[in-house]
Design goal:
15 helices, mainly alpha, 0% strand, single chain
Length: 419
Amino acid sequence: MSTTPAPATPKAGPPPARSVLRDTAFLRLWAGTTASGLATWALPFVLGLAVLHRELGAAGLGLVLAARTAGFLVAVAVGGVLADRHSRRAVVLWSALAAAAAAPLLALGLGRSLLVMTLAAALAGAGQGACRPAFQALTAEVVAADRRQQANAAMTVAVRTSTLAGPTLTALLAAFVDVGTLLLGIGLLWLVAALLPGRGAQAAAPAAPAPRASLRAEFVDGIREARRHPWFLAGLGALTAVIALGYSATSVALPLVSRDRYGTGWVMAAAMTAYTVGALGGALVTARRRPRSQGWSAFAGLACYGFAPLSLMVPVHPAVVIAAYVVAGIGIELFNVPWFTATQREVAPDKLARVSSLDFLLSYGLAPAGLALIAPAAGTFGVAPVLAVCAAACFLVPAAAALVPTARHFGRTPEPGAG
């Protein structure tokens, strides 16, 4: 009597990777980052309301915002060293607490003392700057390597959502509470950012005590680590050029073009909203997208920002400007998410925060210089020629950066599984 053979049991494949959005430790970090983003983007809007309510003058607003930027630039470099020297979680805690403490000081000085407000703004900027590289390095501790691109995409969604929600929520709350109360609310957001994130499970075990070098020496050591990665230097140069030239040019030109060419402010509002929506879409795409030549794809995305200044050069339908900003937003996140992921993968873990601080220091630090130069250049040569030069830089500098050795894959070898 014959028997029917039992069907062969299919060979079990590897279990599907668990979504990073189901990881409690990451969700706490994500929520803390979101709170810090809301606080960061709400503060300039709240200070603008203070000007409207005549509690702060226009010159005072400029001074306070400049002090905040100065505090950020000083602290981001120091914060990178401290986050590599000590617990990244502790650096996030104390830097966010410093930013939280600045909020009631801003409220105290409002309408009373510009000096107090200026010092408080510098403290707020320092807290924001110190926590940026620590948050970036903490992501690498909390999330396993195979899920970091998804995690960085989720972080980007938080940042981009904050740029929309921060001012919008503030405007709604302003109908019910005064500026001082709004400033205290910003302080509460920073408290959430300080207390919510936990320590990463991937954190390295503490090393045996050893004599510490100076802050300057350890920062220089971080520069040496960055120089070991040609793709990083090329990407940082391209990103800095796009922000200092392209982003600065559009920041100056878009309000002028919206007012003088189209006779309305809605084109500017629509373009900026389109940029943020495009960036959100780009972040969602990169959460799962793994191109074979990740670096080249990222540089192509970064170059897409050139369409924004290009759309402002000549009279076109407003829909063309809005579409160009959508493309620019998508492109910037096609660069940012793989860039952050590659940095976390390729850079030595004990130098990650310092290398990340170089990113923030140059890209953020040279933006004010670009803004300071673009406006007089537009007055001397005209808006269109300046936009043409900046658009060309946005296209050409990333293209040149893509030719650098190791730039094709953002590392010495392709990431496993890329295709």
